Amino acid sequence: MSLKLDSVSTLLNEPDAAPVHSVTLFVALVSACIVIGHLLQKTRWMNQSVTALAFGLCTATVIILTTNGKISDILLFDEDLFFICLLPPIIFNAGFQVKKKQFFQNFIIINLFGVVGTLISFGIISIVQFAWCFAHTYKMLYVNAYRLFWWQVDLSSLGAILSATDTVCTLQVLNQEDTPLLYSLVFGEGVVNDATSIVLFNAIQKFSVHVTPDTVMQFTGSFLYLFSLSTLLGIAVGLMSAYIIRKLYFGRHSTDREVALMILMAYLSYVMADLFQLSGILTVFFCGIVMSHYTWHNITESSRVTTKHTFATLSFISETFIFLYVGMDALDMEKWKIVKGSPGTSVAVSSTLLGLVLVGRAASVFSVSFLSNLANDSPIDKIGFKQQVTIWWAGLMRGAVSVALAYNKFTSSGHTQRPKNAIMITSTITIVLFSNVVFGLLTKPLVRLMLQPREESSEISSPKSSSALLPLLANGQDLASELDSVGGGISIRRPSSLTMLITKPTSTVHYYWRKFDNAVMRPIFGGGGEESPPNDILH
Amino acid sequence: MSLKLDSVSTLLNEPDAAPVHSVTLFVALVSACIVIGHLLQKTRWMNQSVTALAFGLCTATVIILTTNGKISDILLFDEDLFFICLLPPIIFNAGFQVKKKQFFQNFIIINLFGVVGTLISFGIISIVQFAWCFAHTYKMLYVNAYRLFWWQVDLSSLGAILSATDTVCTLQVLNQEDTPLLYSLVFGEGVVNDATSIVLFNAIQKFSVHVTPDTVMQFTGSFLYLFSLSTLLGIAVGLMSAYIIRKLYFGRHSTDREVALMILMAYLSYVMADLFQLSGILTVFFCGIVMSHYTWHNITESSRVTTKHTFATLSFISETFIFLYVGMDALDMEKWKIVKGSPGTSVAVSSTLLGLVLVGRAASVFSVSFLSNLANDSPIDKIGFKQQVTIWWAGLMRGAVSVALAYNKFTSSGHTQRPKNAIMITSTITIVLFSNVVFGLLTKPLVRLMLQPREESSEISSPKSSSALLPLLANGQDLASELDSVGGGISIRRPSSLTMLITKPTSTVHYYWRKFDNAVMRPIFGGGGEESPPNDILH
Prior knowledge:
By secondary structure, chain A is mainly α. Chain A has helices at about 1-10, 20-40, 50-65, 80-95, 100-105, 105-135, 145-160, 170-175, 180-205, 215-250, 255-275, 280-300, 300-330, 335-340, 345-375, 385-395, 400-410, 420-460, 490, 495-505, 505-525. Chain A has 2 domains: about 20-470, Na+/H+ antiporter like fold (Up-down Bundle); about 480-535, no CATH class. Chain A is globular and about 70 Å long. Chains A, B: This is Sodium/hydrogen exchanger.
C-alpha cells in the first residue's frame, strides 16, 4: 500500500503530501488520549475533554519545535471533516441515548433555553460589540456604506459563533442517573443551541443586517421552517428504518445487516438534511430518538447490545478527536504571526469577548429561568438559584462548532492573510481554549458543590434519587402514572383533563401521545410494551 | 450545515463541487443494496456482490442518462478511499473471525497457494503477454531500449494486477461451519494473494525487469523482509492492545473505552504498516488474529458482543460499498471514449487477458495441488479433484484490488488521455465485471455441485460435519487431541515426537505453540483457558 500513497501524493502534487502520516499521528494520539483519560478519571479536576485539549497542545508544541514550524498543515482544522464525519455520530448518539421521557416533559423549557436563550446571548454579544466599536472608532461612521455593511455582518457572525455553546464538558460530569432532569435540560439545551446558532449564522450570511420588521418576519419564518422540516425528516427516516427492519425480519439471517442498516440510515438522515439545506443536527438527533424508541426494539438481542455500544463508542472517539484537534489547531503558527504585531488589541478583543460570553450567558439563563419561574406558582416547580448557576456554567464553554463556524467565516480553506480576520480567528480560539481549560478544570468541583446540598434537600420530597430533580422544574409530573415511578406526594394532585391541558400542556400532550403510541405507532413500527430505554441493558 | 458545504466548495473551486450529493447517493445506495440483497438471499443465483455490482451499473446508467454524461466525477474510483477506508475493515475482520486452528494447521499449503500460486499465475500471464506482443508486433524489437523497458514494466504490472484474486464471492457461498478447511484454504489464500500481488506490483515499479540472478535475489529478499516485518508489526500491536486492556481493566469503567481502543489500535496497525512501507494487509490481518486470541478475552461481555458484530458490520458495509463502487465506476465514460475508436483491439485484449487469467489460475492451483499431493503418501491426505476445482474457481474473480492497482498504474488521479493506458484500464474493468457477473452468478450452483457429493462421502471417515474436510488435506491432523475433536479413526496413527517434526511440521509446531501459549502468553496477555473463538457467542 505504501506504494500507492506515495505515488498518489506525488501524482497529485498536493500540499498535504503525507496523509498517512497525519492519520497515523491522529489515531495514535486518540488511543493515547483514551488511555491517559482513563488513568486520570479518578482525579478531582481533569476530564476527557481537558485531557484531549492538553494532549493536542503538547503534540502541536512538539511538532513545531521539531520541524521549526514547517508542517503546520497537519494542525489545520478541517471543517469538512468536522461537519461530515465527527459531528453526526455525537449528535445521533445523544438522541439515541437520551432519556426520552425527561426530554419531552421539559420540551418547552429546553426550547426556551435553546432558542430564546441563544437569541438573547447573540443579541447582547452583537449589540455590545457594535456599541463598543462605534464608541472607540467613531470614524467608522464616515466610511462608505458597503464597508459598514460587511463590518456589521462580521460582528453579527461573531455573535452567532460565540453563542454556540459546548456542553460536553459539563455533561461528562453530570450523571444522567442521579440528576436526570438537570442532565436533560443541559443536554437538550446544548443540542437545540447548536442548531439555533448554526441556523442563525446561516441566516446572517443571507440576509442584510438592516433590521426591519420585514427581515425579522423573514428570519422567523425561515427559522421555523428549518426547525420543523428538519425534525420531520429525522422522524421520517427513523420510522422508515423501523418499518423496514420490522417487516423484513433481518435478524433471522444476519445481525450485521440490521446494524449496518441502522448505521447507514442514521447517517443518511444527516446527509439528506444537508442536501435539502436543512439542519442536519436536528434531523439526526430526532432520527436517533425515533430509532431508540422503535427500531431498536425490532432487532435481535445481540444487535441491541452492538448498536448501543457502537454508537456510544463512535461518539466517544469523535469527541476525543475533536478536542485533540482543537488543541492542535490552536498552535497553527500562520494566524498567530499575523496578529503578533498587535498583541494589545488581540488580548483586549479576546478578553472583551470572553466577558461578553459570560454576561450574555448569564442574561439568557437567568432571564429565561425568571420567566419560567413566573409562569409557575407553586414554589416546588421553580428553578432554584443553584440549578440556574449550573445551567449557566454548563454553557460557558465554547467548542468545536464555534471553531468550525469561525473558520468558515473568516478563512479561505483554512488560510487567511487579512489581519482583521486573523484576529477574529485567534480570539475565537483563545476563548475556546481558555473557557475549556480554565472553566473546564473548575467544572467537576463546581458541579459537585452546586448539586450536593440539592440532592440532600430533594430527598425530602422524593425518596428515589432518580426522580430527585423532578419536583424542581415545571412539568415535572408524569400523568401517565402507571408508566412512571414519581413519588406519590406529587401524583395525588391530579386535576381534570381540561384544566390539565391549560396548566400543564406538556404533560397532557405526553399522556395522549403515550395513548396514541401504544394504539397506533407501536403495532406498525414496533417497540416494547413497556418503556425500556437502551441504557437499561448490560450496564 | 448546508451553508458550510456550499461555501467551502465554492471557496476551493474543486471539481467535485458537491461532496454531499455523492455521499448521500452512496449511503442511500448501500442501504438499498443491503435490503435488496437480503430479499434476494434465497435465490439460487444472486449473491450480495453481484447485487451490488448490478445496482452500481444501473445507477451509473441512470446518472449518465439523466445528466448526459456530465457528472462522471461521482463515478470515479478513488483508490485512496479504497486503501485507507474500505480495505482495512475487511481484512481486519477476516483475521478477527477466522478459525485460527484450521488456518494455522494449513499454514504451509495456504502460503504455497498464496505465494507460489500467485507467482506462477503472474509468470504465465506476463510471459504469454510478452510472447504474444513480440509475435504480433516484432517491429517493437527495433524501437529504442527505453520504450521497450517501459513496455515491459507495463505488461508485468498488468500481470501482477490480474494476479490479485477476489474470493469474497466464493466465501459468501462457502460455509465456515460446514467446510472449515476448504473455507480456510480459499480464505487464507485470498489474504496472502492480496498481499503477494501488491508486494509484487510494488517490486515491479522499483526494479528493472531485466531478470538477472541478482534482481531475483533482491526481489526474494525484499519479499521475505516485507512479509516477516508486516506480520511482526501486526502481532506486536495486537499484543500491545491486549496488554493495555488487561492491565488497566477498562471494563470497570466503560465498555466504550475498550471498544474504541480496539478499533483504534486495529486501524493504527494498518496505518503504521503503511508508514513504514510495509504491507498493511498482512499487518492488520495478523493484528486481527492476535486481538481475537488475546484482547477479545480481556474485555467485558457486552464489549465482546459489540466488537464481534461491529467489525463484521464494518466489513460488510465496506464490501457492499466496494462492489457498488466498481459497478458505478465501470460506466465512467471518459476512458471508454478513448478506446471507442478501436473496439476490435479492446475486445481482443480483454478476452485474451481473461483467457490468460483462467489458464494462469488453473496452472497455479493444479500444480500446487499436485506438489502437495506428491508430498503426501496416504490417499486420505490428498487434495481431491473437486476441491481443486473449487479452489480454482474461487480465485477466478478479479475485484477491487485489481481496479485500485490499475488506476494507480495507468491513470493520473483517475484520469488518462493515452489510448494504451485507457485500454489497460478498460480491459481490467471488463475482466472484473465479466468475472464477477458471469462467474459470480455460477458460483452458488457450482460450489453446491462440487461440495454435495464430497460431504456425503466424507461422512464415512468422520462423523462430525465440522471436521468433514480435515482428512482431505495434508496436516489435517491435530496432535493436541485433548483440544480437538477429530474422529478417532485418524488420531490413532500417532507417531513419535521426532518423526512428527519431520513428517508433520505444522501440527508439531502447533502442539508446542499451544504449550507455550498456555504457559507464557496467556498469563501475560489474557485469553480463556479453552479455545473460544468469537464465532461461538450469541449466534
